[in-house]
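My hope is that you will study the protein record below before we discuss the fold together.
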Amino acid sequence: MRRKEAIIVYRLPWTWKCSKFLMKLIHAGLNTIALVLAVIALVAVWDFHNAKKIPNMYSLHSWVGLTAVICYALQLALGAAVFLLPFAPSSLRATVMPIHAYFGLLIFGTVIATALMGITEKLIFALKNPKYSDSPPEAIFANVLGVLILVFGAVVLWMATRPHWKRPQEPDLKISHRNGGTEGSTMTDCSNAEKSDVEFNSEAARKRNLKLDEAGQRSTM
């Protein structure tokens, strides 16, 4: 759940008024909480398997799940080093950003797939009489839960990939005000000067046309 909130934290319109650095801190904090919870879950599953004499890391569910957690940790460390700390140059951030965004969505999709495989695996092993294939109420409930998880993942991915949900860029005028306001005032002065020049030239052209008309009327008389 925390992973989903971290993905769409930049996509919520009511967060666009917050500073970019604050949103970076929230994004990194939510991802850190999600990683800690994932590690706790892995330790709990490992201890449960050892207590019940169940082999570890034998199923596709476990392989994909552990891969997702490892990639998640690497993604978080790389993102914090490049985007949160002030040492990385802008060129490096621009290069890493598409990769960071792609792998974030890829890891989220992998987590959804891991959850669906885990539900199916649990149903196959837990339901003996009646069997999973007999569609008992437990199987129907778990299948509906799996479909809801899939829909949930699709909605999050849709929000994360739509351009109109993207956080808008800060206008250059606001940036210039933060830098002292001189650039913004200069731009305003320049636009006013250009407007005055246009008005002056239009007035001069109108006067010249009037003089030409008067001269033409005198010559005909």
Remarks:
- Confidence is low (pLDDT under 50) at residues 172-201, 215-221.
- Residues 182-220 form the longest helix (39 residues).
- Residues 2-169 form a domain with the Four Helix Bundle (Hemerythrin (Met), subunit A) fold (CATH 1.20.120.1770).
